[in-house]
Design brief:
It is built from 21 helices and 21 strands. Helix 6 runs antiparallel to helix 8 (117-130) and helix 7 runs parallel beside helix 8. Belongs to the helicase family. It holds the Pfam family PIF1. One of its GO terms (biological process) is DNA recombination.
Length: 550
């Protein structure tokens, strides 16, 4: 029925020439898109549903020699909202798409979060696709592919091998080389980079670089995008205006957003104040403190003398088990209440640099949930020929690898979990997708969306048969990259260990009011400031590639 309605809508546009076609679209778009909403799920991204509907309608119109843009003006309406910085970039890219003779066809958008990188890509995709062109979306991770319609990972799109060895880095550099080679072959054009196709790259280099096991700083820099020989062919576009500030509803909100934006840039660019050891000093208002006991009073000659420990020096000085408790209280208040809305879990997450910290916090939060606990045990074995008698099953069960679910998966109804496999990117079920458990069965987990590689540490490869999910009340900072969260807790029992990690953790939100950090008590200075290590590779932020190829 919705398809027939779209055919009727197309006929009306072509032959009846309605005076306000956009108004007609707005009035009936829910009826026109009912089948796509059912296909993608009732909680699907409205942008994806709308795009699929408009694409179907556009195909109907093209049979009659028309396009949707001629009537609805969707692309034109979106372009109007672009600021001059984005508009200029938009015009250059579209010119490269529509005019084969244009020389510059490779663009790189560089800007911190909030400057419109995603907005620009959405508009470019809409413009090209609504006019009948083909536009593909490639991202470095599964969760990033869900931000744009039709997204695929680079390894999936370009068939990049997923079997790293001591001679391969599998970083962004390699992805760029594979992409260049693929487009040259497809277009039978070896003279121009990427076969002469118009391509837009987008990134914030203040965030986490390619993750390489046991890599030095130099090896990490060599694996990055800027170290590629293709880098010199790109036109670098600096996005500088924060559109969140520009579109703030009132001056007070705009001022707060501008202040927070500068606060984040100081972190990302290594400009934040440091102590005498070179560690950054955290603002006290975002640190979590334990409750301070009442002052102890001792009498003496009729006079009372208060012996009060100053709160700055009692920062998290309880045992290690209590430290996350204060952070959980701050980020997940009322988590044990029944009938909490899904949005409650969507808006919250605690981040930590390492997996052991994450696992411990997830267990602590799950204990606060009411209801029956279900335990799922994995089936662990060695992959390929090998003498399994050398390794007891209990030993295999005890191992926890990055990207692999735990042997013992303990769940309750209401538990927040993260998908760790790319199962169906079109429907948002990919590595990094957060879900909420709604029912627990013997061999099945019902969950609704809330919006392992080889390891040389062991002389074998292990196969684990387990549900591809892990608890998600807490997650590693690396896993959080690309997530949108409204209440963030950062647990730094150990300091961050990679460029951009602290910046990524802080950047999940839009206000410092919803950030809480728990830090080891030894990080309190004599001047009562709170500090921790922060890693910024200045060369990684450099605009030239020569530093990466030395």
């Amino acid at each position: 029925m919705p398809y027939q309605l779209r055919q009727l809508f197309g006929t009306i546009l072509v032959y009846s020439l309605p005076g306000i076609p956009l108004g007609l679209w707005e009035h009936f778009k829910s009826d026109l898109s009912e089948d796509f909403l059912r296909e993608l799920g009732m909680d699907a991204d409205v942008r994806k549903v709308g795009f699929k509907t408009m694409k179907s309608l556009n195909n109907i119109l093209r049979v009659n020699g028309k396009t949707l843009e001629s009537y609805v003006g969707a692309t034109a309406a979106m372009v109007i909202r672009l600021n001059p910085n984005l508009q200029d970039n938009f015009d250059h890219v579209i010119s490269a798409v529509e005019s084969p003779e244009v020389g510059q066809k490779l663009f790189f958008d560089d800007g911190p979060g909030g400057t419109g990188k995603l907005v620009l890509l959405v508009q470019l995709l809409a413009k090209v696709r609504l006019e009948g062109g083909v536009a593909i979306v490639v991202a470095s991770s599964g969760i990033a592919t869900t931000l744009l319609t039709g997204g695929r990972t680079a390894h999936s799109m370009f068939r990049i091998p997923l079997q790293p060895n001591e001679h391969s880095t599998c970083g962004a550099n390699d992805a760029l080389v594979y992409g260049d080679r693929t487009f040259r072959d497809i277009m039978d054009n070896d003279r121009e980079p990427f076969g002469g196709k118009a391509i837009v790259f987008s990134r914030d280099y203040r965030q986490i670089p390619p993750v390489l096991k046991d890599a030095t700083r130099a090896e990490t820099l060599k694996a990055c995008f800027k170290a590629s020989p293709q880098w010199r062919h790109l036109k670098k576009v600096l996005l500088f205006e924060n559109i969140r500030v520009r579109t703030a509803p009132d001056p007070d909100d705009a001022a707060e957003l501008a202040e927070f934006s500068e606060f984040l840039l100081q972190f990302g660019e290594g400009r934040f104040p440091v102590n005498h050891e070179g560690d950054i000093c955290h603002p006290r208002d975002i640190c979590v403190f334990p409750e301070i006991p009442d002052p102890q009073v001792s009498g003496g000659d009729g006079a009372a003398q208060a012996e009060v420990e100053f709160p700055n020096f009692t920062l998290l000085q309880d045992n290690a088990g209590r430290r996350p408790t204060f952070l959980i209280d701050a980020v997940y208040p009322r988590v044990g209440d029944e009938n909490l809305p899904d949005q409650y879990l969507v808006d919250r997450a605690i981040m930590a640099p390492t997996n052991p910290c994450v696992m411990r916090i997830n267990e602590m939060v799950a204990e606060r949930l009411s209801g029956e606990t279900k335990e799922y045990l994995s089936n662990d074995s060695l992959e390929g020929p090998g003498d399994e008698s050398l390794f007891e099953p209990e030993f295999l069960n005890s191992l926890n690898f990055s990207g692999m679910p735990p042997h013992k998966l303990i769940l309750k109804v209401g538990t927040s979990v993260t998908m760790i496999r790319n199962l169906n990117s079109d429907n948002g079920l990919c590595n990094g997708t957060r879900l909420r458990v709604v029912a627990i069965r013997e061999k099945c987990i019902d969950a609704t969306t809330t919006r392992g590689d080889k390891d040389k540490e062991f002389p074998f490869t292990m196969r684990r048969k387990q549900f591809p999910v892990v608890p998600a009340f807490a997650m590693t900072i690396n896993k959080a990259q690309g997530q949108s969260i409204h209440h963030v807790g950062i647990y730094l029992e150990s300091p961050v260990f990679a460029h951009g990690q602290l910046y990524v953790a802080l950047f999940r939100v839009t206000s410092r009011k919803v950030i809480k950090i728990a830090i080891d008590p030894e990080t309190v200075d004599e001047d009562v400031s709170v500090h921790t290590k922060h890693i910024v590779y200045e060369k990684f932020l450099s605009d030239t590639a020569q530093y990466y190829c030395d």
